[in-house]
Write a structure and sequence with these properties.
mainly alpha, single chain
């Protein structure tokens, strides 16, 4: 009947997260370090934000007294924040609604990283371009990835780093290392003229791959040294 219309719900801004936490906690600027850390961790996703706060209460890092939050907010903001089961379950449920073929492509994409290029996914997943495009279309429909929104402006990026992390953790250990090996080999071939731009990625993939194949330890060490030298020059 034309009565319904879609609403695009954007993530909360940094200022909105701060305001929300000030009102929820009934605290002053003492909670600012935690608001900043929670914004970085959740990227303004309201569900991830609230579930992480609930997890902090459950582990007694934050308590409630006379209606106000109590805790060492500086210390909490510097430590690793909990990864609530509810977030993992929500992401897994969305992934399991996809076709088996798309789930397979999604696992390879998660190994590639938060951001990835179409050509690299095609080469690593070893399927046709049409099959890869079909899988990517389904990932876009289920809103686990977006087109070209990341810092590096690659073709695709996972909508939230937690989505990529949960999918990565879902991959069996040995299969994960096998895909890292495939990615490393394809990266070397794909970027052979400009390896300097991806030495950190190569170091990461070979470091994981050598757990499965010890003959790759030399390559892991080689690219780790290169990545370290490059970081020393830049900083």
């Amino acid at each position: 009947d034309g009565l319904a219309f879609p609403l695009q719900l954007l993530p909360l801004s940094h200022a909105a997260v701060e305001q929300l936490l000030y009102e929820m906690s009934r605290r002053d600027e003492s909670i600012t370090p935690l608001t900043r850390r929670l914004y970085r961790e959740t990227e303004g996703n309201p569900f991830f934000l609230v579930e992480t706060i609930k997890a902090l209460f459950e582990m007694k890092a934050i308590t409630l007294k006379d209606g106000a939050w109590q805790g060492d907010f500086d210390r909490i903001s510097q430590r690793e924040l909990p990864s609530p089961t509810s977030i993992s379950e929500a992401i897994q449920a969305r992934v399991h609604r996809m076709s088996e073929t798309t789930q397979d492509a999604l696992r390879t994409a998660a190994i590639l990283g938060r951001e990835f290029d179409f050509d690299l996914l095609v080469a690593t997943w070893a399927r046709s371009e049409d099959a890869t495009l079909d899988a990517l279309d389904e990932m876009l429909r289920y809103q686990v990835i977006d087109e070209g929104i990341g810092i590096s402006k690659r073709d695709y990026a996972f909508r939230h780093h937690k989505i990529q992390e949960v999918i990565y953790a879902m991959i069996p250990h040995q299969r994960r290392q096998h895909i890292h090996t495939q990615v490393a080999i394809v990266l070397e071939k794909h970027f052979s003229p400009q390896l300097d731009e991806i030495v950190s990625e190569l170091a990461h993939h070979y470091l994981q791959a050598q757990n499965l194949d010890r003959s790759l330890a030399g390559k892991a060490a080689h690219y780790l040294l290169q990545a370290g030298n490059l970081a020393a020059k830049q900083f």
